[in-house]
What we know:
Blueprint: E1 11-14, E2 19-21, E3 55-60, E4 66-69, H1 70-74, E5 79-86, E6 109-118, H2 119-126, E7 134-144, E8 151-159, H3 160-163, E9 169-174, E10 177-178, E11 188-190, E12 203-209, H4 216-219, E13 223-224, E14 235-236, E15 243-248, E16 254-255, E17 258-267, E18 273-279, E19 287-288, E20 290-292, E21 302-310, E22 314-324, E23 347-353
Parallel strand pairs: 3-12, 16-23
Antiparallel strand pairs: 1-2, 3-4, 5-6, 6-9, 7-8, 7-12, 9-10, 9-11, 13-14, 15-17, 17-21, 18-19, 18-22, 20-21, 22-23
Amino acid sequence: xxxxxxxxxxxxxxxxxxxxxxxxxxxxxxxxxxxxxxxxxxxxxxxxxxxxxxxxxxxxxxxxxxxxxxxxxxxxxxxxxxxxxxxxxxxxxxxxxxxxxxxxxxxxxxxxxxxxxxxxxxxxxxxxxxxxxxxxxxxxxxxxxxxxxxxxxxxxxxxxxxxxxxxxxxxxxxxxxxxxxxxxxxxxxxxxxxxxxxxxxxxxxxxxxxxxxxxxxxxxxxxxxxxxxxxxxxxxxxxxxxxxxxxxxxxxxxxxxxxxxxxxxxxxxxxxxxxxxxxxxxxxxxxxxxxxxxxxxxxxxxxxxxxxxxxxxxxxxxxxxxxxxxxxxxxxxxxxxxxxxxxxxxxxxxxxxx
Length: 354
């Protein structure tokens, strides 16, 4: 077995398959996450690429089954958008009642500027039949699972309305360069507002179905299961929850009295971030942080800052909560579920001022 090349700037959570998170507290959180800091989430070993990898097929409930080659896509009208990609298991380690799965801290999130062809343009070329209901995307990565026999590709579906959204892309560039191999080269689906499991890497095929897709990464994984002993209340993981992270200072920091710049990011899958509030006394009172957003980039995280003038020594609990334009606000406690998806409780750190 060949061991993967480990990116030196990332925090390794598993080697085979390779899963690494961004050191989110140690680099500037600008519009673009550098390639060496971009988090990596895999379910299987990396696929071997061949000439066939530079094409994607469309079939199923369409009038014309088509194959689009990489060079074809490069010549088509394109779109470029900044998108925050967050693993649905981000912050899983924060659940009080522990759950199985990769114990991500706060770094299973990154942001890049993706360029590609709107998926709806490709579907329009193929011609959707009236029976079309869902669209399935299969990657070139595949392997076995521990809970069922057989070999499976990584495959996910989108409902038709999301597949036809003008900003759902078949992407071929990240940050002005061909998508890096570890992030889905040569073609990757990009689904703004949804958790990263929807943005299928190493895209191989697009299949339009007249029924609900029941692949294991659709109905077994990436499903909220709030009950410990039953399937009651199950629902699919889709939109990103409103969330935030305190980048600086770090938890358990020792700080000097004076002016301290508190900063971080906030993001959501519904609308846009409208407010970020901080509590410097463990939640007794709240103050508003300054919000800095990228112009004309509705799917990008926002940066927030707050100047804290502190003259009294002691220990402080600093809390952060974000609110979006749909009225969603980070809760005091995240909704627990068996597989630890969608953690978005109020962010908190403890610091000591000396």
